Records
---
Amino acid sequence: MSAGPESTHVSSLGKGDNLHQQVLASFPLCDMTEEDLTQNPQFCKLLATLAQHVDQTGLTVSLKAELEKAEQKLQTQRCHWLRSESLHRGLQEMIQDHCVRKHHAVVPPDQNMFYETMEKCLLVAQCVRQLDASSTTGQDQPSVLGLNTQQVMELMPLEKNVQRMKQSLPRELEKHLKKKCLNLLSYYQPEWENESEGLKNTKLSHLSVQMDKEKKRAESLRETCRENTILLQRQTQLYLSELIKSIQLLQSLILDHRLKIQTDLDRKKLDYFEGKCELVLQKIKAEMIEIQLDTYTADSISAHRKMREKLELELKACQVEKQSVELKLASFEILGKEFETLAEEYCRLQQEIEMKNWALKEFTQYNDK
């Protein structure tokens, strides 16, 4: 039963790519791409249905209406506060300007009395507002320094001075505000500073309209900038995703190409090193032959051959003698440890005989001399 309205809402938004674009436009603050919506169609339908009940900031329609009412009420209260605050600051600026003028020029007594009366009235009004805080908080507040409102009101100037000040106040305030407006006009359009008074007043009457136009233009540019920022973020994300895909494709192509040419490259390197090694071996052989030719003559080679033959014969004779001795030694080992003792005794006696023969020989040679 509930599928009917949802399908109606979805069909009212659009289909296919148009639906995706409208969903993305309805939720600009969400970090989504058209690919995400394509891969998740049910989620896309949910967002399309949800777009009928919320705005781009995520607020529901009822909450949006309440928020607009609260903002209107706040704007009204703000306008009242700004009006009173601007009037109060304007009066304070008038007093400050008067104080500055007193130090640079002589001020008429009536004008001096006007500003002194106005300053006292402002101070008393400010003190009364500070003492009577219950009007804003709704609670009884303790008195400051033990003072009450009646005691502070006794510090008001004379009634005739207050009445005289009230009569002159609109005119003086108008002069001050007009001066500020002219200063603002000169700041906004410096080329109008040397214009006549009447022309300035005419242009001053249109200044608020121009300021409203400039404000609307600035807001429009700010909104355009915000939309361009969102679009730029989305395009940047899309660009980065496409760039990553391109890099991955390029890496795969490079890897495949490298694997294909690596075998041919290794084979060519192997052939090169084999040829180089063979060349080095041939060069070594040639150098060895050249050294032999420079070192050995024909006579020395024939003599070396004869020496080699003689040494080989002696080597064979020694090997035959070694074999016979090994056979004798093996036969002696069969006799055991008793023969080993006799052999050691025989070796000792043989050494003594040799020593005595050597001593006898030396003694005989000495006697002959």
---
Amino acid sequence: MSAAFLSALLFAAAPPADAPLADAVETRDAAAIDRLLDREEPGVNLAQPDGMTALHWAVRRGEDSIVARLINAGADATAETHYGVTPLALACELGDAGIVRRLLDAGADANARFPDGSTPLLSAARTGRPAALKALLEAGSKPNAADPRGQTALMWAAAAGHATAIDVLVAADANVNATLPSGFTPFLFAVREGEVAAARRLLAAGVDVNAPAEVRKGARNGLRNGTPPLALAVENGHFELAAALLNAGAAPDDLRSGFAALHAISWVRKPMRGDGDPAPTGSGSLTSLEFVRVLIDAGADVNLRLKGSPPGHPGLNKKGATAFLLACESCDVPLMTALLDAGADETLTNADGTTALLAAAGVGALGSGDEPAATEAEAVEAVRWLLDRGAKIDLVDDRGETAMHGAAYKNRPDVVRLLAEHGADPAVWNVENRSGWTPLEIASGQRRGNFRPSPETIAAIQAVLARPFTVRSD
């Protein structure tokens, strides 16, 4: 029999540690607590098998009077369980300022490091009780101490939306501009989580509402370098917070993230399907369409054009695209309508000369696993809406793409039939684009990153080509 096995066997057979006072406090047995504490040797620091003492349990239960009696009886305020948990760690999670003060007065370390590398102040900041934070700071807790990932108490309070805790930490000279390698600051944490009150407190403390994310080279899971707070709020669906940022002076047409807030509305409302990210949960009572009006009223240029394609947004070439063209790409008729009502120019194209109709039909190849934001029914609605407004059906962009090429890219047989019914001329669209593909060849699998044929789209195009072409009189 090995020594290790014997040791394990003996340990398993050993009776649990005898800690009657800890057991009594755990079960809230008041009579047993009184009886044991009245003894000359109450065994106040005896621990259960996992290291929990009576004081641990009294703190966890929030029993301030019992905490006081145990400390008076000699309980060790620095005792650790077998997992390194101290009474102060439990008190900070609870946020009970009275118990925190008692433990600090009894010798608990205000700057101790817990097993996860955090400090009492960091732990209390997550709970957000200002009185507990004040007690720790008065006992010497360092306001800018960080956990192993570099996160500070102010970052935790901001992310959790604890506005009054932010006030306490700022008053103690917590660094409002502390920055992680990922680019996150306390303010950007508040913005990402949609915490309006927390964001306002930090702005009042002097944070620049337009300060972009500064991401260190090689940082993982970070923001896009240069992302301004407004863009972060909009991409996370926090439109009420975004409106507050605009009121605080956020620049509505800031393009440092590669797009302005108005452009982002299209993919926030209708993100790419398949391997794309889901729509954000968002927050607040302001809808995305209401926020469009807020942006315009704040001075956003409804016809602002992108300088390039933002990372992570395949499909249509975004260079030169306006918010309206992006809304057409996602076949979002309510957004298209809202933008037109706000003065959008529906004739503006991207750098390839792609029109609103071509974008709605589907021009812009996607990679394998990617699916367009719009369903085919939504695409039919958007294409019909544009045609009813007089969109020219036989235009060809600079890459040789037509609306019919777009329908083939996105596997939309109903759009193929709709275009044919509205007089799309085969002499115009049944030609090779710059890549050398006709709509039928695209439907058969000739496209970048995705070689799967679409039998339904192939059949629809072949049926259109097989019937006589008639020019519509309307």
